[in-house]
Design goal:
Blueprint (H helix, E strand, L loop, with lengths): L2 H16 L4 H12 L3 H4 L1 H22 L1 H17 L5 H30 L3 H18 L13 H13 L7 H11 L4 H30 L6 H26 L5 H19 L8
Helix pairs in contact: 1-2, 1-4, 1-11, 2-7, 4-10, 4-11, 5-6, 6-8, 6-10, 7-9, 7-12, 8-9, 9-10, 10-11
Length: 280
């Protein structure tokens, strides 16, 4: 695996993890378009490299939301001690805890089935289009609830939506933002809750995969590319967070909807014309 390829995939991961356009889908489609098969030929390393890139995006979240995360952690500890939820920080911390549970359960029970049955380019194209239209429809809902009005049950609903994003092409950020907008959260709040939900799941997955990598070992010559990809994902991820939050304060998600549809249709055309195979 070349460092240039790792750099490209790291930038793709960082941008698409936070923009509602599916990071897992793009990490499959980009090598598919390039006829690049190293990750496909090394499925165990593929998973490890994917988690390494997600650790890069975790660094971006921890850096951008460091004050909020510290306040939430303190609020969670305080809430456990008092057995009550009193402040906004305590409530938001529990929203993230509740929202994390569905994805952990779905990922733990369905990881192997998802790896074996989902993620082909034609599937990704369809899911990009379908959930792009879902985002468009959700973004027409009223914006009458801010961060201070997020409730525990909102965390559950958004968490259930997040579990759907285990299928490449759905987009974790896209489907959680859609769920937030269906709950009448304003665009900024829906995006912030989506980004904060990334932290616990990615931290857990990263620790688990790092333990596996240490025990099982890695292919020769991949340490450098992994470092390059992780740094690229962190830098581009931070830029994506800042850029999207600045954008949604004044604009809708429509630009991302158009992008998803164009990419989905483009992939289907490549498949239909025989330029690329429907499967990887």
């Amino acid at each position: 695996m070349s460092e240039l390829e790792a750099l490209l995939l790291g930038v793709v991961q960082g941008l698409t993890e936070f923009l509602p356009i599916s990071s897992s889908g793009h990490l499959i489609l980009v090598p598919w378009l390039q006829d690049y098969t190293f990750l496909q030929d090394h499925p165990d390393f593929n998973k490890t490299f994917d988690v390494a890139l997600h650790i890069g995006t975790l660094v971006a979240v921890l850096s951008y939301f460091r004050r909020e995360l510290v306040a939430m952690a303190a609020g969670l500890v305080r809430s456990v001690r008092t057995r009550a939820i009193e402040s906004a920080d305590e409530r938001l911390a529990w929203v993230i805890v509740v929202g994390t549970i569905p994805a952990v359960i779905a990922g733990g029970l369905g990881e192997n089935w998802i790896d074996d049955n989902l993620g082909e380019p034609w599937m990704i194209a369809i899911l990009l289009i379908v959930f792009g239209l879902v985002l468009w429809h959700a973004d027409r809902r009223p914006q009458d609830r801010t961060m201070g009005k997020v409730r525990l049950r909102d965390g559950l609903y958004i968490g259930i939506a997040q579990a759907l994003a285990l299928a490449p092409g759905v987009s974790r950020s896209g489907v959680t933002m859609s769920a937030g907008r269906y709950l009448h959260l304003d665009r900024d709040t829906a995006a912030r809750v989506s980004f904060l939900l990334l932290a616990p799941v990615t931290a857990g997955a990263g620790a688990f995969k790092a333990y596996q990598a240490i025990n099982e070992g890695l292919p020769d010559g991949v340490a450098g590319p992994m470092i390059v990809g992780t740094i690229a994902a962190a830098i581009s991820g931070y830029a994506a967070i800042a850029g999207l939050l600045a954008l949604v304060r004044h604009h809708s998600y429509d630009g991302f909807v158009v992008y998803r549809i164009l990419v989905g249709v483009g992939v289907l055309i490549l498949i239909a014309t025989g330029v690329r195979s429907a499967t990887f």
